[in-house]
Automatic annotation (TrEMBL):
SUPFAM superfamilies linked: P-loop containing nucleoside triphosphate hydrolases
InterPro entries the UniProt entry points to: ATPase_AAA-3, CbbQ/NirQ/NorQ/GpvN, ChlI/MoxR_AAA_lid, P-loop_NTPase
Species name: Sporosarcina gallistercoris
Transmembrane region(s): none
Protein name according to UniProt: MoxR family ATPase
Pfam families listed in its UniProt record: AAA_3 (PF07726), AAA_lid_2 (PF17863)
CDD domains listed in its UniProt record: AAA (cd00009)
All copies of domain ChlI/MoxR AAA lid, residue ranges: 230-295
Length: 316
């Protein structure tokens, strides 16, 4: 199959389980192809876990779930070395982080120390145990969930952790007709893990390589950087988007262009993906928050004020 056919097969497979939410499916696949990770923030019961399982099933990936709780330890995530008396040596028993698709469920319910156990894996695709570095399987993709309405007994994610997520997404409630369809499908639908993969992991790895070949014109790169700078210079912003955010936006645009069947990035791609990449990387001044300003307002200002480039015809 062609690259576009493989991508469409993944999305079609996800839609066998997830009703509607095509935009979330595309964005989740965009992050996976770009080598990034996703933070899903929404109320319980809207399908966050099913979305992750469906994505893993569609590509035939090794799926692992980590249920974050207040008493979870870093070793519960990374793994532990256990002494084998027969071999008279320590054997490493890998933790649930060693997999392709990792669901970090309710990540804000555990301590910052345990949250940070994910940092190295998310950034370097490796973990260090007892001074030894272990490479994680490829692809390696973390989709973390958190409940935005329960604050008691939770630990807000530190900025260093938030910056590791490429996207911050919200699924939202289904429409009335979509919810009726959910009820109808539940009568006979197989769970995601029992559905046949749409593509192989090798196909997925090939798509990730193709993403790096998608053309990003110099004017589009300048547009991305100008938008990032505009967040840093905004009067309401205390901490603007980091260079990691600019790089993440460019990679996301490359992956999104591939999903849309193009071999080049357009300014429209930047405008569409920018809120998902930038929103969780911005901190407002306290007085701006008290005055009713929001991060969404800031991003609207940025997109309105930064000049949109016109692509040269030879760039595509």
């Amino acid at each position: 199959m062609s690259h576009k056919e493989n991508i469409d097969a993944i999305l079609t497979s996800i839609e066998q389980t997830i009703v509607g939410k095509r935009d979330i499916s595309e964005l989740s696949l965009t992050a996976l192809l770009a080598g990034g990770h996703v933070l899903l923030e929404d109320v319980p019961g809207v399908g966050k876990t099913v979305m992750v399982k469906s994505l893993a099933a569609a590509i035939g990936a090794d799926f692992k779930r980590i249920q974050f709780t207040p008493d979870l330890l870093p070793s519960d995530v990374l793994g532990v070395s256990i002494y084998n008396p027969k071999q008279m040596e320590f054997e490493f028993r890998p933790g649930p982080i060693v997999g392709n698709i990792i669901l970090a469920d309710e990540i804000n319910r555990t301590s910052p120390k345990t949250q940070s156990a994910l940092l190295e894996g998310m950034e370097e695709a490796s973990i260090t145990i007892d001074g030894k570095t272990l490479q994680l399987p490829k692809p390696f993709f973390v989709m973390a969930t958190q409940n935005p309405i329960e604050y008691e007994g939770t630990y807000p994610l530190p900025e260093a952790q938030m910056d590791r997520f490429l996207f911050k997404l919200k699924m939202g409630y289904p429409t009335r007709n979509e919810e009726i369809e959910v009820l109808s499908r539940s009568e006979s639908q197989l769970p995601p893990e029992l559905t046949a993969p749409a593509i192989t992991l090798e196909d997925l790895r090939e798509l990730q390589v193709v993403v790096t070949t998608i053309i990003v014109d110099a004017t589009v790169k300048s547009y991305i950087v100008d938008c990032a700078n505009a967040t840093r210079d905004h009067a309401s912003v205390y901490l603007g988007v980091s260079p990691r955010g600019s790089l993440g936006l460019m990679k996301a645009c490359q992956a999104f262009a591939l999903i849309k069947g193009r071999n080049y990035v357009t300014p429209d791609d930047v405008q569409y993906l920018l809120p998902y990449v930038f929103s969780h990387r911005i901190i407002l001044h306290p007085d701006a928050e008290y005055s009713g300003h929001t991060i969404e307002n800031v991003l609207v200002d940025v997109l309105e004020k930064v000049r949109v480039p016109v692509l040269r015809t030879n760039s595509v």
